[in-house]
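Need a sequence for this fold. Nothing fancy.
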């Protein structure tokens, strides 16, 4: 409302106030003088003096409704709405008057608005809004109450309600540009960017030239990604010292164009070019927040964690209220492996669901699984989150796996297996738990179980080549070379090349059938003739039985014998690891060899130790010999085996002990060294070998695979039989494998 309009209304109120009719002429003169004086004082703005004059007049004319109404109006001009309302009510109680009633309604509304202002200044926004909503709803001083209500709605982030108020006011006061502009701003704040732009563009030209309208349009165009349109609009705006807001907006928009260019470079993967542009912008402009944030991201993408750390630390110092920069700093520290410092910085942030989850991730990465579990649970207690719930489950699984590994390391393999089985059956972790179970089966030589486990993992994770390799290895260990070979042959050419690079041992170990050709010579003491031998062996597996067919020719003590033999090896149950073999030899016309021999051996693994018992009968020309051979094999390391056997000749009581240490460091080389001490020969090939003489023997052998199909080897031996002879020499051999 204009000042001239306000003055006219005041004069009209004064005329109504002082239009009274005293009964006598002297009284009329005195009454009029008092009223005129009060009117002149009020017109001059001397409200206190005018009120004093009226109160003196009221003493002469008590209970006068017109004088009481006049005092109420003076109090109204003094903005003492409480007293104004009191006098106006007294006046109306004596005499009805529509103008006084209207003024009282206005005063009461202003009294409520004043209370709303007081509450708002004290921070009690909700109570202030409650008062103003009632006034605005009943159309009491809609201009004043609506203006305040709209601002409070905007302050409390209720743009939809603010827009309703401003649209109502804009309709009631169509000439008021402020209400139309504020309605558009409220639309923008509630997400209606397009609607706000449409309303601003439809405004009269004079309104669109207002600075606040230009700034709002620039903001909306920028938010809509129409940077060029925003730049055109801001450039067309006035460039005068009186428009500092537009100057600032122009500078910010220039920076925004450069930032948008940097974003495009980053999106295209040109991080180096983006870094150069952002660094120049960092030095030249005030847009440090936006520029620094982007520089940090670029350095992070370039894995330049030191520079990313520097920028995020600068931004954290310049914007201490922004917790995001501290969190980004923590991410950088974690990325460069400084988990301890990341956790230390995290302690400076207030505890929340987000910070507890972040602490859990850092502790998990650090391997501190117990504390990580506590943090994830604290985060979920503050706020439920599916992502954090999944991370908690992952941490719990990792904790159980770690605990199981500790049990296994400390010798409680049964406890570890129970945990792995539970994880596998519950499907909480079929990958790692399954792998651990398979490897545990191999370590305890339960190869059938290893085959079962790795077959399942291969089906479940067909893209994981390592599980396929372990399945093949388990088949080989379980003596199912044919199945292992078939699995290799089913691979594609690319997969077989990869297998040759990753696990070439499988290509060697899957070949168990072989043909061996050997020959050897041994020197004897006491002038005895040299021993010579030559022979062949054929090893072929058919189903679960492996046959070894042999033939050899040996010259010893100047005599020559030929001998053929057959061995049949087989497992005696896939689930228990038992195995055994039968062996027989035959010499057609022996001089020193047995006419025939027959026997067998049985083996049984028990908790990583393999026990065996063998019994053989040898029939010579003039005697027979029965040999009992108990034995035990242990595996002190993955590549070592230690075998102890006792050769006991039942018929003569001769006995000897043979200790053999086997070493197979890889798939291409294997060797053994043995020492025998007793009173029987370790090689029971003649009747003399069963006689009782102190005997010491040693033997060193080795074999090397030149390729998957060819291997060569040798055996060096020394034997001393007290009172008979000493013997030393070597045997060389070659094999062809398939």
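Here you go.
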């Amino acid at each position: 409302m204009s000042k001239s309009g306000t003055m006219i209304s005041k004069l009209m109120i004064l005329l109504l106030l002082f239009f009274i009719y005293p009964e006598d002429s002297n009284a009329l003169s005195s009454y009029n003088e008092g009223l005129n004086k009060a009117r002149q004082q009020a017109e001059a703005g001397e409200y206190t003096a005018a009120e004093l004059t009226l109160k003196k007049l009221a003493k002469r004319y008590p209970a006068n409704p017109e004088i009481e109404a006049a005092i109420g109006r003076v109090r109204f001009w003094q903005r003492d709405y409480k007293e104004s309302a009191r006098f106006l009510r007294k006046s109306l109680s004596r005499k009805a008057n529509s103008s006084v009633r209207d003024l009282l309604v206005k005063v009461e509304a202003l009294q409520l608005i004043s209370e709303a202002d007081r509450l708002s200044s004290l921070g009690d926004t909700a109570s202030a809004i409650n008062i103003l909503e009632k006034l605005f709803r009943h159309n009491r001083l809609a201009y004043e109450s609506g203006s305040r209500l709209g601002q409070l709605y905007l302050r409390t982030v209720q743009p939809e309600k603010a827009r309703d108020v401003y649209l109502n006011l804009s309709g009631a006061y169509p000439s008021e540009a402020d209400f139309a502009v504020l309605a558009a701003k409220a639309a923008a704040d509630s997400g209606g960017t397009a609607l706000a732009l449409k309303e601003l563009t439809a405004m009269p030209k004079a309104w669109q030239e207002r600075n606040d309208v230009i700034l709002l349009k620039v903001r909306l165009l920028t938010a809509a990604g129409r940077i060029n349109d925003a730049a055109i609009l801001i450039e067309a705006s006035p460039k005068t010292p009186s428009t500092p807001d537009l100057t600032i907006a122009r500078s910010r928009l220039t920076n925004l164009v450069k930032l948008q260019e940097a974003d495009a470079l980053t999106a295209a993967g040109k991080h180096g070019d983006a870094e150069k542009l952002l660094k120049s912008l960092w030095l030249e402009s005030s847009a440090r927040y936006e520029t620094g944030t982007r520089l940090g991201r670029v350095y992070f993408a370039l894995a330049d964690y030191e520079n990313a750390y520097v920028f995020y630390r600068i931004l954290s110092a310049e914007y201490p209220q922004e917790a995001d920069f501290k969190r980004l700093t923590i991410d950088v520290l974690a990325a460069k492996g400084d988990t301890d410092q990341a956790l230390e910085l995290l302690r400076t942030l207030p505890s929340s669901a987000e910070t507890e989850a972040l602490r859990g991730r850092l502790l998990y990465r650090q391997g501190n699984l117990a504390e990580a579990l506590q943090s994830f649970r604290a985060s979920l207690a503050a706020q439920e989150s599916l992502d954090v719930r999944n991370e908690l489950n992952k941490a719990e699984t990792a904790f159980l796996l770690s605990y199981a590994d500790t049990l296994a390391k400390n010798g409680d393999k049964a406890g570890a297996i129970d945990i792995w089985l539970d994880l596998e059956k519950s499907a909480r972790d079929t990958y790692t738990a399954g792998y651990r179970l398979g490897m545990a089966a191999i370590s305890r030589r339960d190869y059938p179980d290893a085959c079962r486990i790795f077959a399942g993992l291969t089906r479940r994770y067909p893209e994981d080549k390592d599980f396929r390799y372990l399945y093949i290895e388990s088949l080989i260990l379980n003596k199912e070379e044919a199945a292992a070979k078939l699995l290799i042959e089913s691979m594609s050419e690319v997969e077989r090349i990869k297998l040759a690079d990753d696990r070439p041992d499988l290509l060697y170990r899957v070949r168990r059938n072989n043909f061996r050709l050997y020959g050897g010579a041994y020197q004897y003491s006491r002038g005895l003739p040299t021993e010579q031998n030559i022979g062949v062996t054929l090893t072929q597996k058919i189903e679960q039985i492996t046959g070894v067919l042999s033939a050899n020719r040996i010259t010893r003590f100047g005599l020559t014998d030929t001998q053929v033999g057959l061995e049949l090896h087989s497992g005696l149950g896939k689930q228990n690891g038992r195995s055994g073999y039968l062996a027989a030899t035959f010499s057609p016309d022996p001089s020193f060899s047995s006419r025939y021999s027959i026997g067998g051996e049985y083996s049984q693994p028990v908790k990583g130790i393999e026990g065996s018992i063998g019994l053989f009968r040898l029939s010579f020309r003039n005697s027979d010999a029965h040999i009992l051979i108990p034995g035990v094999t242990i595996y002190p390391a993955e590549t070592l085996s230690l075998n102890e056997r006792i050769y006991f000749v039942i018929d003569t009581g001769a006995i000897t002990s043979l200790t053999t240490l086997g070493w197979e460091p890889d798939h291409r080389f294997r060797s053994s060294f043995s020492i025998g001490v007793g009173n029987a020969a370790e090689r029971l090939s003649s009747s003399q070998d069963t006689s009782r003489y102190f005997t010491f023997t040693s033997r060193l052998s080795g074999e090397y695979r030149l390729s998957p199909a060819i291997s060569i080897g040798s055996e060096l031996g020394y034997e001393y039989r007290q009172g008979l002879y000493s013997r030393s020499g070597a045997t060389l051999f070659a094999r062809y494998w398939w």
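For context: DSSP finds 30 helices and 14 strands in the chain.
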